[in-house]
Amino acid sequence: MTDVLPQPDCSLKAVCEPLERCCLDPLEEPGSKRPPNTGARLWGRVRSKLLRQKLDPQTVETKNWHTDVIEMNGIKVEFSMKFTSRDMSLKRTPSKKQTGVFGVKISVVTKRERSKVPYIVRQCVEEVEKRGIEEVGIYRISGVATDIQALKAVFDANNKDILLMLSDMDINAIAGTLKLYFRELPEPLLTDRLYPAFMEGIALSDPAAKENCMMHLLRSLPDPNLITFLFLLEHLKRVAEKEPINKMSLHNLATVFGPTLLRPSEVESKAHLTSAADIWSHDVMAQVQVLLYYLQHPPISFAELKRNTLYFSTDV
């Protein structure tokens, strides 16, 4: 028997491969043969079991690790799981870090690099568009956690082998690294200060008032945040153009990125809401709708936004 311990963020491919290798090993009984695709079928059972556990109210309420074992054709998979609320998994911790790129203010990174968009964002986007834009579930399917951490380390160290490593890395790990970068910013890309205004703007029922409000909020962002947001926005639109192949619609992409780019500050959360369930129901749908609004909007030009800023500031 073989024990296979999946990591928390591992992909189906990453787990199936070692399971399939187990299936090809000589068996103790001569002449016996395992059915084909045992690894994939076994991991399918594991995923189904994990999903059932995730939906079980008792599992959600407990903070303890839950261990289970699934066996098929002589292969045993032992795995452990523990529920962590979305609020805790996306919680941002203050950081005074000034080196590297993860956990560092975007204004610090762009100033140090003398760039408009952080190098890590540009390189991950370029690699995804080069060989992952038609990947089914791109940005939705998790990369292998160890690969993502390896990429994080080389970007933080500004290693000269970054480009070579990117070219060899699984595309889902690169997509995961980009998401992790935005998730670990000291404050979300659309800022803590403007969060309440985004929530109010997206709730407006009058289309003209909503348009004016949502564009004004973009103009209110710091330049590094705004330029990076517009850069990411156009990238996500290009990904969605391949929806018939990659199955990632604008709404799917907004669901993945919305809560990462736009989150209430810890002070805001404590002031208005009392539980993780409230945070989910009250905020996440609105966060998704904010990003979806901009994704569905005609192309937004940084220069045009700035021209409008001058117009509004002089038209008194």
UniProtKB/TrEMBL annotation:
One Gene Ontology CC term in the entry: membrane
Superkingdom of this protein's organism: Eukaryota
InterPro entries: Abr/Bcr, Rho_GTPase_activation_prot, RhoGAP_dom
One function term, GO molecular function aspect: GTPase activator activity
Domain Rho-GAP intervals: 104-302
GO biological process, one term: signal transduction
Record-linked Gene3D superfamilies: Rho GTPase activation protein (1.10.555.10)
Entry-linked Pfam families: RhoGAP
Annotated PANTHER family: ACTIVE BREAKPOINT CLUSTER REGION-RELATED PROTEIN (PTHR23182:SF5), BREAKPOINT CLUSTER REGION PROTEIN BCR (PTHR23182)
Name of this protein: Rho-GAP domain-containing protein
Upper lineage: Eukaryota, Metazoa, Chordata, Craniata, Vertebrata
